[in-house]
Amino acid sequence: MATENFLSLPTDLPVPYNDGACNHLCGLTLPSITLQATSGATVDLSKEQAPWVVVYCYPRTGRPGQELPGGADAWNAIPGARGCSPQSCGYRDHYAELQALGASVYGLSTQDTEYQSEAVERLHLPFPLLSDEQLTLAKALQLPTFTFAGLELIKRLTLIIRAGRIEEVFYPVFPSDGDAEHVIAWLQARNNQ
């Protein structure tokens, strides 16, 4: 079995297109839903007090040495699926800049907290990941999902929240490793208004 490098993106990935599945999100007030965080806390994003809350939703992180369910080739063929670890590392590398702009950061997937905790440790993430294993938030917000190898997964998107209300949505996010920089540019523009 070939070892998959989860920290880099192949150059031939298919580009996702905007299917309009997030058009309804801007302006929505978040419902009060608690999610388990890798920090051990439960988080209700509707009650977060930071000036800005950035939630990047991703399908699933892989683990080195473990074959992806359904296989790497099939995963890479899905537009926007590949790149969860590079996206998380981008937020890790720009975390201080995001904090300086008044943003708290969360990653969110349908993986369970135990699985996510391994990724937090391995990737040295300074922020928690949130588990929406039951798709509670995804269904409440009607987030776009897809099914792969029998798993229902959230498509890659990023929410920017202020005072419990969704102010901006980045969708589709591609390439994933540039997401944090796009969010920083948006926050800088908004903070300078």
How many helical stretches?
A: 6
Strand order of the largest sheet: 2-1-5-4-3-8-9
Shape: globular
- Rg calc: 16 Å
Q: How are helices and strands ordered from N to C?
A: EEEHHHEHEHEEEEH
Share of β-strand residues: 15-25%
- Compute the average pLDDT: 93
The portion of residues assigned to helices is 25-40%
Structural class of the secondary elements?
alpha+beta
* End-to-end gap: 52 Å
Q: What's the β-strand tally?
A: 9
The largest sheet is: 7 strands, mixed
Q: Which residue ranges are poorly predicted, with pLDDT under 50 across at least 5 consecutive positions?
A: none
Search tags:
193 residues, alpha+beta, 7-stranded mixed beta sheet, two-stranded antiparallel ribbon, 26% helix
